[in-house]
Design a protein that fits this description.
About 75% of the residues lie in helices and about 0% in strands. By secondary structure, it is an all-alpha fold. Helix 1 packs across helix 4. It starts with a helix and ends in a 10-residue tail after the last helix.
Amino acid sequence: MNAMQFLISTLFDLFLMVVLLRFWLQWAKADFYNPMSQFVVKATSFAVKPLRKIIPGFGGLDLASLLLAFIVAVAKVSTLVLVSHYIWNTPYVFMDAFITTIFEIFNLVFWILIIRAILSWVSQGYNPIEAVFHQLTEPMLKPIRKFLPPMGGLDLSVLILIIAIQFLQILLSGFLIPSYIFY
C-alpha cells in the first residue's frame, strides 16, 4: 500500500469512526450535553441533517447516521479503487463498503475500550470523555461481568471483550476480504 492509499484510508476511516460514534451515542442514549458528544454531533451535523430529511429515525435508531456511514465507506472504497487504477465495479464497491463499515465498527469498539481502560488507570475525579465511554461500553461489559468472578479489583471484562472483538475480526476477515484488492 503506498502513501497515498494510506492517507486516503486514514482520513476516511477517521471520519467514518466519528459518524459511527454518532450513531452509537444516540443508540446508547449517552449524555448529549457532554463535550465529547457535542464534538461528534457538530463534526457530523453538516452531513447528517440533510439526510434526516430523507431518512427519519426509527425506533430510537439514527438511520441517517448509518446511511452516512455507508456513503462514507462507498466514497472510501471508490477513491481507493480509482487511485489504484482498478476498474470501478458497482457490486464490489457496495459490498466492500458494507465490509468496511462492519470492520470500522469493530475498530471503533476496540479503540474505545482501550482508551477507557487507560483512562481508568490515570484519570482522577470526573472526566467527561471517560463518562461517555462508560455509557457506551457498559451495556457490552455488564453481561461479561455476570460470568466473570471478581479478581481482586481488576476488571478483566474489558480484556475479554477486546479478545472477542479481535476473534470476530479475524474470523470475518477470512470470509470478507475487500475485493478491490483483487481487481
